[in-house]
Amino acid sequence: MFDYQAPSQLLKNKVILVTGAGDGIGKTAAITYAKYGATVILLGRTTKKLEAVYDHIEKLNYPQAAIVPLNLDGAAEHDYVELANTIESEFGHLDGILHNASLLGDRAPIASYDPTLFEQVMRVNVTSQLLLNQALLPLMQKAEHASIVFTSSGVGRKAKANWGAYAISKFATEAMMQLFSSELTELSPNIRANAINPGATRTSMRANAYPEENPENLATAEDIMPLYLYLMGNDSLDINGQSLDAQ
Ligand code: NDP
């Protein structure tokens, strides 16, 4: 596991957007960021799940969260503008984005991969990250230090048979991280961009990808949080353009 012990107030006064915050790793990251002092904006497509995370954060007396129901498949430019306007009026700035939401798509050969599904996976896993960053960069420029964290995968570095659109989307995510990282160095040196490869983690996506596997043998989302905290907090100010393993 990535070795980092976060100070208890690491994210105090930070405003952090987490996509796919209703389930799996995103849910745990949102709750963990709130535990370390952040005001978390919970973005996802299933409002009920987001409300459950919101209630959990409230029950633990962490800073009050905010909910943004948004389906990243089919979200239009005006949705992103509206999101930026809401964050601007509520908080005035943004200190971090965790791009975590993803679709697995089909485990199928690329030669016969359904083109409609291919486009859907690319919209959710890649295009939405671009549109979110473009809409929210002005708000991140207003932060003292801001961090963009992308979520990669082992198959985003070395593609494996039958990982189809998902693998391609994760290669694209690595490239997007590198582009933002190098270009922001000039444009907005207060913003850094990095990626996390979570490694095999006990979630419903992993269970769908490996139905034969015993989930008990896998790391939990809680186990992998040290790297999520490290990259979002100010202890990683000199880390930019890296793709790091959580396990
Ligand atoms: P889950 O499927 O458990 O959670 C994914 C989250 O993304 C869900 O909350 C889901 O919402 C949300 N989401 C999916 N589609 C959309 C959409 N169109 N609009 C908005 N939100 C959406 O996945 P994990 O927690 O396992 O994965 C988190 C990240 O980690 C992903 O980027 C994944 O690729 C990556 N990863 C995971 C690994 C693992 O072993 N678990 C290994 C390597 C990488 P809803 O709950 O409503 O479906």
Please give a structural write-up.
The chain is of the alpha/beta class and 247 residues long. Strands 3-2-1-4-5-6-7 form a seven-stranded parallel β-sheet, with helices on both faces. 43% of the residues lie in helices and 14% in strands. The chain contains seven helices and seven strands; from the N terminus they run βαβαβαβαβαβααβ. The chain is globular. The mean pLDDT is 98. It has a single domain (15-245), classed as NAD(P)-binding Rossmann-like Domain (Rossmann fold). Bound molecules: NADPH dihydro-nicotinamide-adenine-dinucleotide phosphate. NADPH dihydro-nicotinamide-adenine-dinucleotide phosphate (NDP) binds next to helix 1 and helix 6.
Helical region count? Answer: 7
Derived structural class: alpha/beta
Per DSSP E runs of 2 or more residues, the count of β-strands stands at 7
Quick one: overall form? globular
**Domain module count:** 1
Oligomer: single chain
| First and last CA, distance | 4 Å
CATH topology: Rossmann fold
What small-molecule ligands were found?
Answer: NADPH dihydro-nicotinamide-adenine-dinucleotide phosphate
Largest sheet: 7 strands, parallel
Strand line-up in the sheet with most strands: 3-2-1-4-5-6-7
The first-level CATH class name:
Alpha Beta
Mean of residue pLDDT values: 98
Give helix and strand order, one letter per element, not per position: EHEHEHEHEHEHHE
Strand content: 5-15%
Poorly predicted spans: none
Can you give the helix content as a percent range? 40-55%
The rounded Rg comes to 17 Å
CATH architecture: 3-Layer(aba) Sandwich
